[in-house]
Amino acid sequence: MNGLVILIPIALTLGLASLAAFFWAARSGQFDDMDGAGLRILIDDEGPREPASPEPVIGKS
What we know:
Blueprint: H1 2-27, H2 36-40
Pfam family, one: FixS
Protein name: Cbb3-type cytochrome oxidase maturation protein
InterPro entries: Cyt_oxidase_maturation_cbb3
């Protein structure tokens, strides 16, 4: 019974803190662009890479 006196306020505090963090994230625009991160990987902004020059082999003649 003494454990409940400690655990219930801790659970309520953590629940309120997570709810406050969610509202802060929603207000600051964290959830505005849900599809952008998934589609950003498909965008190819870079041109083709140049082929690497062959490295000289040291010790072989």
